[in-house]
Amino acid sequence: MLDIKRIVEDKEVVKKALLKRMEEKDFNLDEITDAYDERKEKQQEYDNLRAKQKGFNDQMSKVEKGSDEFKKLIVELKNLSEEVKEAEEELREAEEELKKKLEVLPNLPDDDVVGGGKENNRVIREIGEKPEFGFKIKDHLEIGEGLGMIDMDRATKMAGSNFAMYTGLGAQLEWAMINYFISEHIKDGYKMILPPHLLVEESGYTAGQLPKFKDDVYWVQDGSMLLPTAETALANIYRNELLNEADLPIKLFGYTPCYRREAGGYRANERGLLRMHQFNKVEMFQYTTPEQSEAALEELLNKATNLVDGLGLHYRVSQLAAADCSAGAAKTYDVEVWLPYLQTYYEVSSISNVRDYQARRGNIKYKTGEGDNKYVHMLNASGLATSRLMVAVLETYQNEDGSLTVPKALQQFVGKEKIEKGK
RNA sequence: GGAGAGAUGUCUGAGUGGUCGAAAGAGAUGCUCUCGAAAAGCAUUAUCCGGGAAACCGGAUCGAGGGUUCGAAUCCCUCUCUCUCCGCCA
């Protein structure tokens, strides 16, 4: 949620920032400031009427009940009461109207974020080299299924399309990655969280996924949603709470599966583990002061790339153009690993500074040393999405004989250096 | 799942229709005292919206939403959550 005052005071600046990620026809700031003025007016009317009404309280308490004077006052006050109720209703409507217009606006991109969509994403770092193979390589499914690590057919039988089942060493390898990430985050002083997976609607709203993405999440019968990412949970830990400045930054990470309907459908080549209704992800999260958040974003980026480095995969880091950032993000980096079979880079981590966007939606503040209450800044970063990394690991570490070398960092967790057929 | 009790400010907790944004205590902060600290005394101590340069003024907020009433923290209804007892169960 954007700060309405910012829109009122700096309309042109806000407009210019939004134009980096939206087309002019898709938003209208004048409508918003009009709605704000309308609300202000309705509030004034209501406040005045209420003040008048409350002014009679003293008098009423002193007049004898049932006396002529009492009866006379009642008649007058009944009318006033009606007016107050009308004004209250109008105020409520004006407030709702303003909120409705305001909450659909995405965050303002940072100054150093370029405008436009995907095509303007800027690769800022490229690490390692595309692996060379002296043989015809297989895709991750062929390797994984060949080694008994993944069973797509049976997963589909029990769950429907676009679900995967990890079996045997496949499950162990997936879990090894999670373990590896967890141990690194703990080393870095991040606090581990295992949150609920079913969340109330309000949580989706605070994280910024609702109302926009209501068709992309799974809903269960009593009105809760299955979280599409641990971020949704981690962004709600302190909802409606007041934190202390001394406690910031708060650094957390959580592991959950991510459940997504992927309502848009699939591209033909996104087979196997690339886009699933359920995938595993370790998510990092920080609550900071406004002054701390930019450094925190860089810290999270470094943590994410360190993990990919540890796996020995080739990857690049992109800074996303405004329209490619998720709605809440002011600035986003993507870490994309190289997939040898598809000959393309795929996102395994998205690192975003949402600044106070989620904090406004969830009313999350901190008390400064001076005693002011200010909105916290919040940052989220995958650290990392393991199911997609599995694709890169399977393809990058495949051997000509169909076996798989286990990346060094994972060997202690898998208990093997190599995965071979039938062994 | 059944029965009951409850939800008030940073915390504990009083408040059953008007003078209540809310007693009292704790905590915190400031001042006095002190070489310093403790103790003691005094003072201050919610957030949001609107107006104002400011002092300050008006309004909202006592779990959430609705209702009754001229008037609601207080009465009624619904919901959420917490606690106790019983049942059931990883």
Automatic annotation (TrEMBL):
Enzyme Commission identifier(s): 6.1.1.11
A single MF term (Gene Ontology): serine-tRNA ligase activity
Pathway where this protein functions: Aminoacyl-tRNA biosynthesis; selenocysteinyl-tRNA(Sec) biosynthesis; L-seryl-tRNA(Sec) from L-serine and tRNA(Sec): step 1/1
Chain ranges of the Aminoacyl-transfer RNA synthetases class-II family profile domain: 181-407
A GO term from the CC aspect: cytoplasm
Pfam families reported in the protein's UniProt record: Seryl_tRNA_N, tRNA-synt_2b
Coiled coil: 32-105
SUPFAM superfamilies in UniProt: Class II aaRS and biotin synthetases, tRNA-binding arm
Designated name of the protein: Serine--tRNA ligase
Any single biological process term in GO: seryl-tRNA aminoacylation
Species of provenance: candidate division WS6 bacterium GW2011_GWF2_39_15
Location(s) in or outside the cell: Cytoplasm
